[in-house]
Amino acid sequence: MFKVSVVQFKPELFEIKKNVDKVMKIVEGVDSDFIVFPELAFSGYAFSSKKEVEETYESPLEENGYAFKTFREFSKDTGISVVYGFNEKYEDKYYNSSILINSDGTFKIYRKTHLFFREKLFFTPGNTGFWVENVNGIKVGVAICFDWYFPESFRTLALLGADLILHPANLVLPYCQEANKIRSLENKVYIATSNIWGTQSNGEIQYSFTGKSQVTSPNGEVLFRLPDQGDFIQTVEIDERKSQNKSINEYNDLFKDRNPKYYFHS
Where in the sequence numbering do the catalytic residues fall? Predict the structure, then answer.
C-alpha cells in the first residue's frame, strides 16, 4: 500500500518562481509517497512565441531550473517522489517534458510523445519513449496530457509493469476524465491525472482548462475527482497488488490472453 497525491491549481503565465512558491504552500505537511503536478505546471501553457519558450525553460540534466532545484530539495527533505511537467531545453531543442524526482536525488525525464495543437509550433516530439521506474518497490510510469488519446501509450506503460501512471495534464478537451476510467480498466492500472483549471490568455491565444483532476483504479472506478475550478491537493491510498493482478476471472488474464500476432503493427 502507498499514497499518491494530486495537485490541481491555476498558474500565472510565465511566473515560474511565484507558481512554485504557491504550490509549495499547497503541499506543506502532506503525508504521501508520490505527488503529481500538471503539465507545464509552472511556466503555464499559452505560449504565443518561441521567445516565451526560450525564456521559461529548465535543464535538469545541467542542474538548471528553479522548480527542479526546489522540488529536488523537497523530495530529499520529505521522502516524497514528485512528478511535474516543464519546458525542457536539451541540446538546443525544446521539449514538453515531465520529471520524476526521488528522495535520493535521482531523477528521470519523460518527453511528451504526442504533441497537441500549437505545441507543435514550439516543441520537438519526445524521444525518450515510455518508461517505468521502480521507486521503493512501486513501479511508476509517466505520460503527459494528450498521450491519453492514444491507447498504445497507457498499454505500453502497463506492459512495462506500471503499478501507477502519473499523468500531468493541461486538459482542454472534455473527454479525458471519462476516458481514463476505460484506460485504467483496459490495462488494470491506477492513473493519477493532475490538471490545471481556469482560463489562460496571452494576446489572441486563450485556453480554458477543465480541472477535475482525479485518480482512477484498475477496476475503472474514480477514486476521487476534484471540482472543475479551484486549487486543491487530494491524497488516496493505493494497493499496488490490484494493478499487478491482471486476472479477470479464473479463465481470463488480461495480458496472458493477448494475441499480438493478430494485431495490426505500424
Answer: 39, 112, 145
